[in-house]
Amino acid sequence: MSQLGTKKAEVDLPVRTKYEESRRQKTGVFFKKKVGWLFIIVSVIAITIFNFYPMVQAFLLSFQSGMGANLEYVGLDNWRRLFGDPTFIAALTNTTIYLLIQVPLMIVLALFFSVLLNDPKLKFKSFFRIAIFLPCVTSLVAYSVVFKYLFGIDGIVNQFLINFGFIPQTINFLADPFWAKVVIILAITWRWTGYNMIFYLAALQNVDKSIYEAAKIDGASSFQQFFQITVPMLKPIILFTSITSTIGTLQIFDEIVNITNGGPGNATISISQYIYNLSFEYTPDFGYASTVSYVIVILVVILSIIQFRVAGEKK
Amino acid sequence: MNSLKRIFIYTFLSVAAIVSIFPFLWMLTSITNKSVDVTQGRLLPGTHLIENLKTLFATVDIVPALINSSIIAIITTFLTLLLASLAGYGFEIHRSKGKDIIFTILLLSMMIPFAAIMIPLYRMFGSISETAPLIGIDSLGAVILPTATTAFFIFFFRQNTKMFPKDLVEAGRIDGLSEIGVFFRIYVPTMKTTYAAAAIIAFMNSWNNYLWPLVILQSPEKRTIPLLISNLGSSYSPDYGVIMSAIVIATLPTALVFFLMQKHFVAGMMGSVKG
């Protein structure tokens, strides 16, 4: 009896402790999980209120029409209106032109600079690197105003071109539909090439130098090395920069407003500027403006998917 | 052949460097010259700097704009660092399946174009203007709120938290710190460089932000620096010396940050792709 009793007691004690321990651990885990939610909850709520909820609202607005706060549902009218709206078509065309010319131009330039600057034998390397990166410290509005003056009819670019005999008479860059677009593209490229270059430079430092040595021994030219080693090695970072640049250029606003204000006519207007004008410059039509804004959303999604596909296939 | 290639490379890089630097040189010489000299393409330093600055401070409300921009940028940066680091830490240290799903959904918000949410945001702040004027239309609060929490910085902090030694969290718990205590007493001091990098990017984004303040701010005395410069730039009879002075003053903070903290600056950019 007594032996059994002591045995029982001996067995009982650890059992209970184990049970309690596991219970404590369970509540501990549970508590820890809850605390984890506390860390993220404010951000989750804020992003929901200031990003996702407005996204849904904009979608609903895109089926409404009316002036200011007097909105009513009009079905697909806004979406139909898009295709017959010359300003929207101009904005879409311009934005597409910026995208197709500026993004590839900038990425190729940035890649080129980074490869040249990655050469260990190059002199004045940090000078070149800092110089090319410098435009990134300016605010978009500030450099836009500077570019507007540089390319003005009596601006310094015109004076330079005339003095060196490149052109017979001044070009009114910002009043010409073609040249105004060129100025916008040059401006964005000036501002962002160095930014992208820094990403490529960092990625190049992780590329094993011996690959290039081996390629050289095999007789590969610099161009072959560039296209067959550098580009494939940097593919993930090229994908990243081309997606961010695409999203950025699709939304271009600051430069257009401050360099040309969309002119001459609507020759440089971008989708974002048109949305702004529809909402805050003309008689406000929030419904139709939201429809136009959803075009950017759709474009961002489509282009991102295409870029991921293209990058994926080449693997 | 090889020397020809060298010459080409140095010429190419030099042209790129000159093109990159030239607008800065022009800005810097313009602030020392009369407006007439600037239009005549003078590229040498002049003696008109003091006059330009005097005219700037006398005719343009640059001081209130600098104050507004500073208030907005400092509060936005503080809120961004606090909220994004809390969330980045929470997602990585207190990892769970549910949180990973939420994290992926949050990342999607990075693809939302601002132009698409600007109208609903404007209406949202308009509807609370009367009850809460401090965060209503034409308030600095309304500029700050939507920009203070972005998925980008949460992602940034989470990526950097991957390199944070998790043993420190356990050590803190054993020492009797609460979960929040572990965060503020151990995580924050250890991650100083991450905070520095994030602070630079957040400050620059806020300082240079144009579209949202343009939409939400209306009265001239609330204007931020980019709004002021945009306004100066669109004037019909521009005084180039004065406008360039305003632009140089507006660019100084970000340029200084860049030159003093180059490493953090680049680290901040890289943070978005690391890992």
From TrEMBL, chain A:
InterPro entries, A to Z: ABC_transporter_permease (IPR051393), MetI-like (IPR000515), MetI-like_sf (IPR035906)
UniProt membrane topology term: Multi-pass membrane protein
UniProt keyword annotations, A-Z: Cell membrane, Membrane, Transmembrane, Transmembrane helix, Transport
Domain ABC transmembrane type-1: 92-307
Cellular compartments annotated: Cell membrane
Main location: membrane
Entry coiled-coil feature ranges: none
GO cellular component: plasma membrane
Stored Gene3D superfamilies: MetI-like
A Pfam family it matches: BPD_transp_1
Membrane-crossing segments per the record: 35-53, 97-118, 130-150, 182-203, 286-306
Keyword Nucleus (UniProt): no
Listed SUPFAM superfamilies: MetI-like
Entry keyword Plastid: no
Source domain of life: Bacteria
Family: Belongs to the binding-protein-dependent transport system permease family.
Protein name per Swiss-Prot or TrEMBL: Lactose ABC transporter membrane protein
Organism: Planococcus citreus
TrEMBL record, chain B:
InterPro entries with a match to the protein in the record: MetI-like (IPR000515), MetI-like_sf (IPR035906)
Transmembrane intervals: 7-28, 62-89, 101-122, 134-157, 240-261
Keywords: Cell membrane, Membrane, Transmembrane, Transmembrane helix, Transport
Domain ABC transmembrane type-1: 66-261
UniProt key word Ligase: no
Highest taxon, organism lineage: Bacteria
Record GO biological process: transmembrane transport
Location in or out of the cell: Cell membrane
Topological type in the membrane: Multi-pass membrane protein
Main subcellular location: membrane
PROSITE patterns: ABC_TM1 (PS50928)
An annotated GO cellular component: plasma membrane
Coiled coil ranges: none
Homology family: Belongs to the binding-protein-dependent transport system permease family.
This protein's name: Lactose/L-arabinose transport system permease protein
Organism (species): Planococcus citreus
Lineage: Bacteria, Bacillati, Bacillota, Bacilli, Bacillales
